[in-house]
Structure formats: C-alpha cells, structure tokens
C-alpha cells in the first residue's frame, strides 16, 4: 500500500498545459478502469467468421493511473510505464510497446500536442497470459485514464479501436472479442459484422480456474493456421463444428438448459484439444471438474496454457472448486450467471 501511495504521489502537475482543456488543467491524475473476460465458446473460430460467446468477469479488475511528471525525457520516449506486482521483464517490454502505440494513437485522435512526459501506473488483479483479456483490459483502462487526464470524451467506438491497436501489436490480428468484452456489462454474442448482448435464461455458476501456465494466443493462432495449411479441408471442418457448437450453446443459454450448455462446452474443449491447443494440465483440470459434477468444462482463451472455465450448479460449486485445486489449479473465481444480467459497467 505504501509503495502504491509513493507511485501515485510521483504523478505531478504538467510541465506544459498544451493540448489540455481549460477545465482540466488542474487535474494531475487521470483514472481508467476495465475488467477481465472469458470466452465461453468460439475462440479461434471467430477469426474465421464463426460466432463466439464471451463473458465479462467483473470480479477481476484493472485500474490505470495516468499523469504528468518532471521526468527528463531520454529523447526516445515521453512515457514511463509501471506495472504493480512482479511481472516478468518480457511481459513489461511487450506491454510497454503496445502502450506506446496506443498512446500515440490516442494523441493523434484527440488532437493532443506537446512533449509533456507521461507516467502510467497499472494496478490490476487479472493474471497475465491466462486468456482472461489482461492486455485488452489494461489497454482499455489506460485509454480512459488518458481521456480523463486530458479532459477528452472517449466514445465506445474510439475505445474499441484504440484497444485493437494495442491488441494487434501484441497478438497479431485480433478478433475484437477481448476489446469489446473487457468493457461490457453483459455476456456478448459475436457474429460477423455485429455484436449483441446474450439473452440469459439459465442460472448457475461459471468457475474459472487458473492452471498456472502461461498461454500464448499468438503461438496458438500460428499453430492452428499451420494445421489448416497442411490438411485440406481442416479449416472448414473446424469452423463448421465450432459454429454448430456455439450456436447450440447460445440457444441453450437463452432457453434455460444448463445441461445442454455444459455438454456443448465440453464438446468445444474436445475440438480445441484435437487441434493441439490444450495442455495436459488443462485436460486434467477439465477431467477434475467433470468428475466433481460440473455440467461442462473447457479451456478458455487462446490456449497452450491459461485457464479453464466450468459450468456448475450452485450446490456443486464447493466440491468442484475443491477438486480443481487438488488437480493443480492455482486460483479459482466464481462468476454467477445471475449477476451478469444487471452488472453495471
């Protein structure tokens, strides 16, 4: 806590007010927030035009603080970036590169000029590299922190495009699912060309379990694409099956059929496992969740590590959680469906 206070106290008034609106010149710190997400079904296939279902996870948040400092620029950058906790150096470097691109895009869009040095501090509970949208949530929080600092109105469309700028740099061509869901208040359905809120007819709990292993969306995308190139018709089969399962899950969610929803989730895991996007540890967690009474379970996100998501009835949640930890989960979070129909952003 003391370290956090010292970091925030270092954010001081600007050395120049150029590009800052009159009513916001006294502001020394801008704040932005976002939350985690989980893909229910449709990961990877959504890039090829298939639908996808995604859930906001309001329990896991990230807060960005942006301000000016009297730091002397090194001539190469007008930005200092700090992540709380103990992130790996490679992660900080990658995130910093995306942040610099996002900041440059923000300034160009909003007409911000001047060479004032910016300090950005990112404080969040979303584990990195687990398929929970940490990079997209961080980018969104930072975009709104910059808007708050400079006194600019940031529309949802502009926020999405700014986050996509950073996501494309970090992961290659991003589907846009993460960029939308980390700011959403309800579960979303993604179809080619449009996004809409999901109709919820089910009650139950989603349990998200962290395997402790870093995933890699970029590597997983390349692995899948390589498989498509090497096997004729593989892409069409994958996308068709993914679309079928995702549509069936959407219908089950709307119609109040949790058993059907769970079955489709487990089937989707089998699809990703056949594409070599799961891991032995994730598979063990899936088995543990199912053995403990989950209605369905699957890997969530890019794959090759990361997290599992399981659907369970409330009365089985304690046992499922216990078995997941016994099977190696390092963290678990409960996401009640009931709370996702009225969560305020």
TrEMBL record:
UniProt pathway annotation: Isoprenoid biosynthesis; isopentenyl diphosphate biosynthesis via mevalonate pathway; isopentenyl diphosphate from (R)-mevalonate: step 1/3
EC number(s) recorded for this UniProt protein: 2.7.1.36
Pfam families in alphabetical order: GHMP_kinases_C, GHMP_kinases_N
Keywords assigned by UniProt, alphabetized: ATP-binding, Cytoplasm, Kinase, Lipid biosynthesis, Lipid metabolism, Magnesium, Nucleotide-binding, Transferase
Every GHMP kinase N-terminal domain range: 106-180
Protein localization: Cytoplasm
A GO biological process held by the record: isopentenyl diphosphate biosynthetic process, mevalonate pathway
Top-level enzyme category: transferase
Coiled coil: none
Lineage: superkingdom: Bacteria
GO cellular component, one term: cytosol
Protein name: mevalonate kinase
Organism: Streptomyces actinomycinicus
